Amino acid sequence: MGCFAEVVSFDEYNLAHECGYEDAQIIYNGPMKSKETFINAIIGGAIVNIETKREIQWLQELPKEQIINIGIRLNINISKVSPEDADAENDNSRFGFSDETEEFKNAINTILSMKNVHLSGLHIHRTAHSRSLKFYQNSILYACSVIRKYNLNLDYLDVGGGFFGIFPNKPTYQQYSDIFFHSLKTFGLETLRVIVEPGNALVASCFSFLSEVIDVKHVEPQLWFVTTDGSRNDIDPFFRKSGYMTEILSEQVNNTVTEQVVSGCTCLEYDRLFSLKEQPLLSVGDRILYKNVGAYTMCLTPMFIRYIPNIYVIDKNKHYLIRKKWTEKEFIQKSTY
User: Fold this and answer.
1) Alpha-carbon torsion 79, 85, 91, 95, what sign?
2) What is the 3-state secondary structure (H, E, C) of the chain?
3) What is the mean pLDDT of residues 36-57?
4) Please, are residues 281 and 216 in contact by the beta-carbon 8 Å criterion?
5) How far apart are CA 191 and CA 189, in angstroms?
6) List of residues 6+ apart from 33 with CB closer than 8 A
7) Which phi and psi (to 5°) does residue 232 adopt?
8) Is 262 exposed, middle or buried (0-12, 13-18, 19+ CB in 10 A)?
């Protein structure tokens, strides 16, 4: 649909090529670049944002007769850039070069000293849990102040991602883009190209995880445990969520019970997903649909006890199997045992 592939390692860079992307359709971020893919991506016309000091040294190995365009990531400490959005007293970041020390200055001076290298972009990807408009405004204003401080002549500003998607009473994409424009205009940089990385907001919402009830146990007078063939690993790999967007699919009409704890299929005692209070008792064969579980949720699902499940596409109310579940064959592939 015209979007680029944003990759953050040499493995993802190679995967993007395997999926049919050309270098000119790739944005290459992150610390896990290899020298070979770093050089190939730049020569091929990818947007490459420097994350580590070794990448600056690798620039020396690029062809001297070719003009090289490169971006660099600026460190964003939310506690200082946008204190109201900070999660801790010092909500700093391990990414990017800091302008609070000499590292950002030294990095760009080294880059600007190379006659065939043009510093063309600034990468400021940092996500606040608030995802507020004010956070992006403050981050962009800070980036603009750094651009002006060093008189940088840039082609783009990569603001990263972390946006709300389709949720009601939350900022819309239009509101985010408006705040980008007005923040840049404050510094006379409104014609600067803006790159966004809204992958999570876009692809989380198009995936759902379907599980089925395989057992129901009555363990206390007012408590039932419902075991499903899914797991909390599938929909909450960080085990941080307190609630999920769910839909109960049942044709049973059972009596209402006090509490049901919906649980997973693993051997972990804490594989408990959520509770149903004063709801009809679930039965074997009922299904639970978890919505908005693409993006990080999907890619971080471990192969613990149960391997990667089937993936289907729904098109015009028809289901198409597009990736078969892994079995023990795929699990041990390339292993020596």
Assistant:
1) negative
2) CCCCEEEEEHHHHHHHHHCCCCHHHEEEEEEECCHHHHHHHHHCCCEEEECCHHHHHHHHHCCCCCCEEEEEEECCCHHHHCHHHCCCCCCCCCCCECCCCCHHHHHHHHHHCCCCEEEEEEECCCCCCCCCHHHHHHHHHHHHHHHHHCCCCCCEEEEECCCCCCCCCCCCHHHHHHHHHHHHHHCCCCCCEEEECCHHHHHCCCCEEEEEEEEEEEEECCEEEEEECCCHHHHCCCCCCCCCCEEEECCCCCCEEEEEEEECCCCCCCCEEEEEEEEECCCCCCEEEEECCCHHHHHCCCCCCCCCCCEEEEECCEEEEEECCCCHHHHCCCCCC
3) 98
4) yes
5) 5
6) 9, 10, 13, 41, 48, 51, 52, 55
7) -60, -25
8) buried
Give the N- to C-terminal CA distance of the chain in Å, as an integer: 43
Give the pLDDT confidence score for residue 301 in this predicted structure: 87
* Angle at 221 (CA atoms; ends 219, 226), nearest 5 degrees: 40
Q: How confident is the model at residue 8 (pLDDT cuts 50, 70, 90)?
A: very high
**pLDDT on residue 201:** 81
Q: How far apart are CA 323 and CA 301, in angstroms?
A: 15
Q: Taking Cα atoms as reference points, which of 187, 181, 112 lies closest to residue 147?
A: 187
Distances in Å between the Cα of 55 and the Cα atoms of 31, 112, 250, 266 are 9, 14, 55, 42
**62: left (phi > 0), else alpha (psi -120 to 50), else beta?**
beta
| Rounded-to-integer distance, Cα 245 and Cα 208, Å | 10
Pairing of strands 117-123, 68-73: parallel
Instruction: Report how far residue 71's alpha carbon sits from residue 119's, in angstroms, rounded to the nearest whole number.
Output: 6
What is this structure's pTM? 0.91
Sort 292 into a burial class: Cβ within 10 Å, 0-12 / 13-18 / 19+. buried
